[in-house]
Description:
Blueprint: E1 3-4, E2 15-16, E3 20-24, E4 27-34, E5 38-41, E6 53-62, E7 66-80, E8 85-90, H1 95-110, H2 116-136, H3 141-175, E9 176-185, E10 189-192, E11 197-202, E12 209-210, E13 215-220, H4 222-323, H5 328-363, E14 367-368, E15 373-374, H6 377-423, E16 439-443, E17 448-453, E18 460-461, E19 466-472, E20 478-483, E21 496-501, E22 506-516, E23 521-523, E24 528-530, E25 539-545, H7 550-554, E26 561-567, H8 572-582
Antiparallel strand pairs: 1-2, 3-4, 3-6, 4-5, 5-8, 6-7, 7-8, 9-20, 9-26, 10-19, 11-13, 11-18, 12-17, 13-16, 14-15, 17-19, 20-25, 21-22, 21-26, 22-25, 23-24
Amino acid sequence: MEIKQPTREHRAYLRVTAPARVAIDGCNYTVNNWSIGGLCISDFSQTTLVGDCLPIQFSLSFKGGINISTNTLIEVVWISSDTKKLGVRFLNLTKIETEFLQQAIDSLQTGEIIPLETIEGINNRDETSNSSQLESTKPALNRNNYKLVLSSVGYIFAGGAIVFYTLLSLQKSFTQMEIKSAALTQPIEPVISTNSGTLSQLYVREGMKVQAGQPLLRINDEEIARSNIDNEINNVNAIARNKIDNIDALNQKIELSRLELAEAEAALQKVAALRQREIEKLQLAKLVNQNKLNAARAKFDSLTIQYKAAKNSLSRLTTLLQAGAVSNEMVETANAKLAEIEGNLKIAKAELEIAQAAASSLNNGDYYNGSAFVGELSRLTVDVKDAERKVKIAASRAIALSQEREQYKKEVQNLERQKEILRQPGRTLGNRKEKNPFYSIYTSPTSGTIVRIAKSPGNKVTRNEPLILLQPEIAQPIIEAYLTQDQVTQVSIGDKVTAVIPELGRSYQAQIVNIDRTGGLLDEVRGQYQFQGSEDQSAYVKLLITDMNRDEKSKLTAGMPVKLEIAKRLNIFERLGFFNRNVK
């Protein structure tokens, strides 16, 4: 098998000549060479033009009965009428299919898998050699047969091993991604000057290991030290004045909040009194209405009984009239009485319904004043709740402002004490060890290694200037990696990954502690980050190694490369769909 390196003019991917075939419109063609970008077809007999798009089936065969094929589209890039060759490029390979072909190319390069035709050629040469030996000498027949059997068994085991490691590599490519853009980092802590002066003495050298609290250097300058003290006192005075101004402003706000609280409480009392009077009105109205309801119900019941009696009497007289036992005048009188009672019954029923409606309205907070339904209990109840809310807000604001004022008062008191300390001749400033205003000894803030010394004895030092760079001893080594925006979707904070450090020849367990995707490309039109589809490694991931001993930590240096092995979050339906299309 020949590996063809890409040319600058036409090829962007590594091409291989491993046997492959394509089917176009039912015709099978031999592939001269191929890559993940496209392929070259030999003996092409169909009519086509540059730029045409054709559907094809691309097939690969490997030892062990592994046949892989995929259906895709190609675009004709060039045509050679003399050699009947056709150059095409793939149009719609999925990401999984591209990774699969790249894995096959890598495995072909390393010899992990062998094309079927190559293995068959080796077997044919062995069989030819064995046949010639059998013909040349008969006594060697058994020996050659024995060698052939051993060779066959060896090929079987080798083929099985190749297939196993090929499938293992393919499975690893589907279930795991490797990140090679990672490196060890170690924090650098600067020792910053807190005063101005002259560096008079160094107690350490670069590369030296120090312990926390160990003296590092000495700075002294009487004039600058006194000037610094005056400047610090002036700064403290300025801060104190600012806080006093804040206290004055808070006093005004507190008075205003107290007035608002008093107004809110007064409004609450007023609306609460109105609501109470409304409740009393409703109670009185309910009592009156209940009496009316009882009277209307009694009247309705009485007229109902009278109506039934008058109706029975009229029926009886009508029967007697037919028998000639009573006069017609008696029947008419009974009929008139029935009509009168019926009219009174209807009036009583209407009065009863009005009384019942009034009772229902009273339950809702409304009552009848003789001409219309009135009532403000619901509104007043809402007003009471709103007033209570305003009182609570005003009280909370007054308390918060008072607490803020007390905090400012404490800070002013602390500033006054700080000024008294600054005026003392034997004070201790910052991390200065000795009580002397004219020189200061700086000590190491933590245990670690001196990486760089920025000043030499005799150099002038200004405030807030880095003097020494210290690499602290860290409990857990830090790894920083940059992933693409698609890769970073496969990880989350807290995930465990494998970190391989080639220089140490070991792998360690690491845990993701921070993810920052804001390095994604900014879409200026929509003003949003485009996190998907970008091949730029713009997503930052920070990890901590959790299982490294002290001796191994001492061998680490900043910038040491690390390879991360991260388990993918598989979409099982996507994976099964890929194998159903491509593995036959």
